[in-house]
Amino acid sequence: MSDLRELYQEMILDHNRSPHHFHELADANRTARGNNPLCGDQLTVYLKLNQDKINAISFLGSGCAISKASASMMTDALQGKTKHEALQLFEVFHKMVTGHTELADPSKMGKLAVFSGVAEYPARVKCASLAWHTMKSALEGSDAIVSTETGE
């Protein structure tokens, strides 16, 4: 295993053990729930939007290490972003984890690049992308539960 791959694996395990922003956001004005029935991942994303800016984001839930680490690192990446910036990052992240690296250069993803290897394991793509789809649903104000089995 390469040193970089080992580092990425360790970062994912660290975020799984000690997830960032892992709490209910009491004053959230947007929430969405997500479910990945294939792996058992379930989470809720909480957003506090002020006009077009994400003032706070958090999550709660349970799932595999990749799912929890992805949600943790997503909340780190999106603090203070505008809705437009968050949706752009969603698109690039999704392309990266689905192996479309010609459209999403992992070297420009910062710490989120740890998930670039997920593309090699198709069963894990839904684990890595669940929090992102759930965040997108919260931004859009949808009340529907996001399921990895109803769309990508």
Q: Can you characterise this structure?
A:
- With 152 residues, this protein is of the alpha+beta class.
- It is built from 4 helices and 4 strands.
- It has helices spanning 3-17, 65-78, 83-97, 122-140; strands at residues 30-36, 41-50, 53-62, 146-147.
- Strands 3-2-1-4 form a 4-stranded mixed β-sheet, with helices on one face.
- Strand 2 (41-50) and strand 3 (53-62) form a beta hairpin.
- The longest helix has 19 residues, at 122-140.
- The protein is globular and about 45 Å long.
- The termini are far apart.
- The relative contact order is 0.20.
Order of helices and strands: HEEEHHHE
Summed over residues and divided by their number, the pLDDT gives a mean of 91
Uncertain segments are: none
Distance between the termini: 30 Å
Fraction of residues in β-strands: 15-25%
Structural class by SSE content? alpha+beta
The percent range for helix content is 40-55%
The backbone outline, from C-alpha atoms, is: globular
Radius of gyration from the CA trace?
Answer: 14 Å
Q: Could you give the order of strands across the largest sheet?
A: 3-2-1-4
Task: Count every beta strand, where a strand is a DSSP E run of 2 or more residues.
Answer: 4
Number of helices, counting only DSSP H or I runs of 4 residues or more:
4
Largest sheet: 4 strands, mixed
